[in-house]
Amino acid sequence: MPLEALRYDITHVDPSSYRLVVNGLVETASSLDPADIRGRPQVSTVVTFECAGNGRGRLLARPVSQR
Under a CB-based contact definition with an 8 Å cutoff, are residues 37 and 21 in contact? Predict the structure, then answer.
């Protein structure tokens, strides 16, 4: 998602083509579609979340963003 998409409250995706890919330092890589995600158990956890990158859009010269 490009950095510019963060200006909107809601991000829309095409559910027929959307895939969540989990890979890298994991035991088993996964590629999940929305139905796969909804089929998993729902879990609630209290966590601390910090985003260290959204402010980059205001920097000059602007760094390269996500794809």
Answer: no
**Closest listed residue to residue 1, CA positions, set 11, 9, 10, 16:** 11
Q: Look at residues 45, 41, 62 and name the one whose alpha carbon lies nearest to residue 53.
A: 62
> Are the CB atoms for 12 and 1 separated by under 8 Å?
no
Q: What is the pLDDT of residues 41-60, one digit of tens each?
A: 999 998 876 666 666 667 77
Q: What share of the chain is helix, strand, coil (3-state, %, to 5)?
A: 20, 10, 70
Query: What is d(CA 33, CA 11) in angstroms, rounded to the nearest whole number?
Result: 16
pLDDT of 36? 95
Q: Give the global pTM.
A: 0.50
Q: How many residues are given for the chain?
A: 67
